Known about the structure:
Blueprint (H helix, E strand, L loop, with lengths): L2 E2 L3 E6 L3 H12 L4 E4 L16 H6 L12 E4 L7 E2 L28 H4 L1 H9 L19 H15 L25 H12 L5 E2 L9 E2 L5 E2 L25 H7 L3 E4 L2 E8 L7 E8 L5 E11 L3 H10 L26 E5 L14 E4 L18 E6 L20 H10 L3 E8 L8 E9 L5 E6 L4 H20 L4 E4 L44 E3 L14 H21 L6
Parallel strand pairs: 1-12, 2-3, 2-12, 3-9, 4-18, 12-20
Antiparallel strand pairs: 4-5, 6-14, 7-8, 10-11, 11-12, 13-16, 13-19, 14-15, 15-16, 17-18
Helix pairs in contact: 1-7, 1-11, 5-11, 6-10
Amino acid sequence: MVKELDKVDVVTIGAGWTGGIIAAETSKEGLKVKSLERGPYRDTDDYQHVHDELKYAQRYELMQDTSIETLTFRNNPDERALPVRRLGSFLPGNGRGGAGTHWNGQTDRYMAYDFKIKTMTEEKYGESKLGIDSGLRYRDWGITFDEMEKYYDKFEKTTGISGEKNPLGEKRSNPYPNPPMVKTPILEKFEKAANELKLNPIMMPSANMSQNYENPDGETLNQCQYCGFCERFACEYDAKATPDVTVLRTAEKTGNHEVRYNSNVTEIVTDKEDNEKVTGVKFIDTETREEFFQPADIVVLTSFLFNNYKLLRVSDIGKQYDPETEEGTLGSNYCYQTGLGATGFFDEKFNTFMGAGALGMLLDDFNGDNFDHDDLDFIHGGSIHFTQTGVRPILTNTIPKDTPQWGEEFKEESINNFARTLTVYTMAHTGPHKNHYLDLDDTYKDAFGNSQVMLTYNWTEQDNARNKYLTEKCKEIVEKMGAKHIEVENDDLGDYDIVPYQSTNISGGTPMGTDPDNSVVNTWLQHWDRDNLFVAGSSTFVHNSGNNPTGTVGALAYRCAEGIINYYKNKERLED
C-alpha cells in the first residue's frame, strides 16, 4: 500500500547542482522544499584520506549502479539495442551532491552564438550549412546570452570560480570572484606555444579554489591543495565547489529544506481532475522497499539527463519523438561532445601527478563561429584545452600506439612515459540529428519494474570533419611545445562506442524553446503540458557546445528557480 506523506510546496527529484540550487533559492523565499535523492548521504568527513583510484576512478563508487538501473544502446534505429553494464561516456552521480560531487570543476560560459545558432548560421552561411539531417532539429534556444549573463554571474559567485577575462569571450558584468589558479611550468609551456601561434590562451575558469573564499550565501570554500584527485573523486578539503558544500548547505540552514535519501522516484502523478497539473510523485525507499506518495504544489525534475527523460515518459507526460516523421519532442535533440586531440612524448619529465580538476589553460580561437566556416564541412567548433588534472597509474598509462599491450616492452614504455607525455585536446560541439534520440526499451526493465532508457546515437560526417580540423590545431600546438613524437586522434571516428570514456558532457532529451511543437519546456524550464512541473539540467539544451556545460546548467537552474518562485506567488503560467 502506498503511504502518503505530508504535502510540501516544492519537491525536487535529485540533490545535485540543479536540485541544490532550486532548493536553496526557493527555501530562502520561505517555501517548504523536499529533495528526493536515490543515493545515500555523504559529506566531507566521508572523504578523508581516501585517494583510492581503484575504488573511485575504476569501480565508480560515487556513481549510478548499473545493476539497478542502466540504459540500452544502439548506433542506429535499425539495430537491436543492448544493455550497458559499464558506464564510460557519461558518469551519473549517486548520492548527496550527485554528479557535481565527482566533477572536475571546469566552468565555462556558452557563447552568444550557441543561443542563436540557427539564426546566426543561416544568416552568414545559408540554410544548407546546418546539414540535411540536422536542419529541423537545430533551433535558437529562445533566450539570448545577454538574458543569461546575470544567471552565469550568480552561479560563478556561488561556486567561487577562479579565472581571468577571456579576450574572445562575451561581455561580463563582473570579473570572476577569485583569481586564476597557479600557472605551472607545463602550463607556461603550453601558453608560450599558443602565443607563438598567435592564439589567445587563458587560464581555465575553475571551481577549484585559488584561495579561501566565502560565497554570497556564507558558505566557506578552502584553497586547493593540488592533490590531483578531482575527477571521479570527492574533495576532502572542501576546496572544490560542489553542491554538498555550497547550495545544499545553504538550503538546509533555512530550516525549510529536507533531503530524503535512498528514495528512488518512479512516477510523476497527474491531477485526475486537472490534467494540466501534477499532484506529486511516487517513490520507493530503496532500503525498505516501501512505496510512498509525496504531494507537492510544484514538482521539479533535477536528476541526470536520462532520468529526467525517463520520468516524463513513464508518467505519460509529453509526446515521444519519432525519427521517421520528426514529430514529437520528448527524447529529441540528444547530443554529445568529442574530446580528442594530440599527445606529445617528451624526453623531459614533468610533475604531472600533481594537479587539480580544472587546473589548465584553454583557448576559444576555434570555438563557435570565431573562425570562418565558408570552406569547411561543419559548423561550430570547440575549445582547445591543456590540463594538469593529476595522472594516476591505473587510469593513466600513455604509451605509443604500436607498443604491445603486455610484456617487457609494455612495462618499459609505461614506466618511461608515465610523466613524460602531455596532451592538448578539444572539447567540441556536436549537433542534433534526426536519428539521435532517447526512447524506452520494453525488453529490459530496471530493478523497480520500469523500462530502461534506450539511446540511439552515432557520429556524423560533420563530427568527423570537425574532429579532424580541431585535432590538427592541437597537433600544431604540441609541435610548438617541442615534443619528440606526436600521436593525433584524427582518423574517422567510426561508430560511436558508448563504453570508453570520452567526455561526460551530454545534452538534450527534454529541449527548451518558445514553441510547444518543437520543445518540451519553455525558457523558464516549465513543462508545456503541466503548469506546475519544471525540468532542469542539460537535458533542456537544444544542442551541445564547445565548452563545458556545467556553467550553463547552473545558470539555467537559477533562472528556473526564479520562475518557480514567480509561479508559486502568482499561480500563472510563465511568459517567455
